[in-house]
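Technical annex B. To support the medicinal chemistry partners, we prepared a structural model of the target in complex with flavin mononucleotide, based solely on the information shown next.
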Amino acid sequence: MKTLVILAHPNIKNSRVNQRWKQELLRYSNEITIHEIYKEYPNWNIDVLKEQKLLEVHSNIIFQFPLYWYSYPPLLKKWFDDVFAHGWAYGSKGDKLKGKKLGIAMSIGDKKENYLSTGSVTFTVDEVIAPFKASAVHVGAVTLPYFAVFGASFQASDEDINQSAKDYIKYIFQHK
Ligand SMILES: Cc1cc2nc3c(=O)[nH]c(=O)nc-3n(C[C@H](O)[C@H](O)[C@H](O)COP(=O)(O)O)c2cc1C
């Protein structure tokens, strides 16, 4: 079964990391489905049934996005609000995500060493993504370890980003 990548970047044309990752994902189109929500929903009117059906036919789902204000880009947050609905994702009859594997692949502007309790961010990445992990628990899904590239704003070289694209594919296949 193919892995579904929900890609949320508000401006992919100006992206270095997510653009490069997308290019790498496209080389594996037999194994990976890419769903770009900012392209699909320029007016933010999310077709909830369509999204739910897409999730239903995949058991491994990765959310790929740049970290903005220690969180998702806003359309992805809306996507969760709309798509992970009561009676479908949770509640007494909502079990459609139960047992599915959910992961996060993020580009992070700041340096890795800053994402520590003793660093300038004062939180680890695992702490930053707690809302995602709690959401996965709430819908009975399994959370995969996150995948990230750090220094995405300035420090990461083209070579680092190329390497991260290869590592991202490995991460996806490792968690199939
Ligand atoms: C609105 C906005 C908010 C951001 N917030 C954060 C942040 O909270 N933490 C961080 O490390 N980087 C932050 N960044 C930097 C982005 O994570 C970085 O630009 C992005 O990961 C680069 O990926 P791209 O080349 O695919 O666009 C922010 C950037 C923008 C534009």
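Notes passed to the chemistry partners:
The longest helix spans residues 158-174.
The domain at 3-174 is CATH 3.40.50.360 (Rossmann fold).
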